[in-house]
């Protein structure tokens, strides 16, 4: 069993759930020989390591991380942060580890099919007011974010391609359909019955229409968009949560065609056991196109308005007079 796992995300692949599992079960996991490293960690993620790197002080933080690992040489240790993916941190992380420990390190990464990843990224940017345009234009401009082969190359160079654990983010591949169970299996966690296993603690995936409406509210008013999202997440009304609603079937095919060669190369390098890196049956010839027509789009926008303004009324009702 490797002594150190470095979980690098990617974003939008259940990282929050994995981190929450490790934090909530800290003592019980230590008893099972899995240590969720304390050094360099703020709450559930080791973002302080990357912050120290940006400040030119990563060596001091990583020295403490290594010391913690060496105090329990028999255990499996875990570092985790989405910020490590694509942040140029591979060489610095590898350079901060003693040679023997570096050889016993595995880089764990979950990859979401690029059309779904770019959709999630688009919604996030629109929701926070950082992008105001069309979804397909955004995807075309951000295709580089989906080049996973390029993003993983520095880790392969620093740690060796044989030490990169690539896991497609597809729930049918996970035990009980839960990414936490998949990660626990890789970490060698024995017995899960007495552990807290979250279902999903990721941010609510709002519909395209609600995402756009919140963005307009954020630009035109002083409404705190995060408060609305938090309110909707507590008990999502029907139609609030929806994925796969930004791109048409033809657009998804276009996006994925652009990644066909690099995904195949990545599969051959890291997952030759898989026939394909991602399941693509929904994009195959003859697959149904679920893109809503004009009438359905109008209905969804009206529903989004009802949901958001009802949420605002419910939030105002809770404010003491």
Structural summary, described in words:
The protein has 321 residues and is α/β, with parallel strands linked by helices. The protein folds into 2 domains: 151 residues, Rossmann fold (3-Layer(aba) Sandwich), CATH 3.40.50; 110 residues, no CATH class. Helix 7 runs parallel beside helix 11 and helix 11 packs across helix 15. The longest helix has 24 residues. The model has no long low-confidence stretch (mean pLDDT 93).
Indicate the CATH topology of the largest domain.
Rossmann fold
Give the helix proportion (percent range): 40-55%
- What is the CA–CA distance across the termini? 59 Å
CATH class of the largest domain: Alpha Beta
CA-atom Rg in angstroms: 21 Å
- Number of self-contained structural domains: 2
Number of helices: 15
Shape: globular
Strand content: 5-15%
Low-confidence stretches: none
- Secondary-structure arrangement, i.e. CATH architecture of the largest domain: 3-Layer(aba) Sandwich
Q: N-to-C SSE series?
A: EHHEHHEHHEHHHEHHHHHH
Give the number of DSSP strands.
Answer: 5
Structural class comes to alpha/beta
Largest sheet: 5 strands, parallel
Strand order of the largest sheet: 2-3-1-4-5
Mean pLDDT across every amino acid position = 93
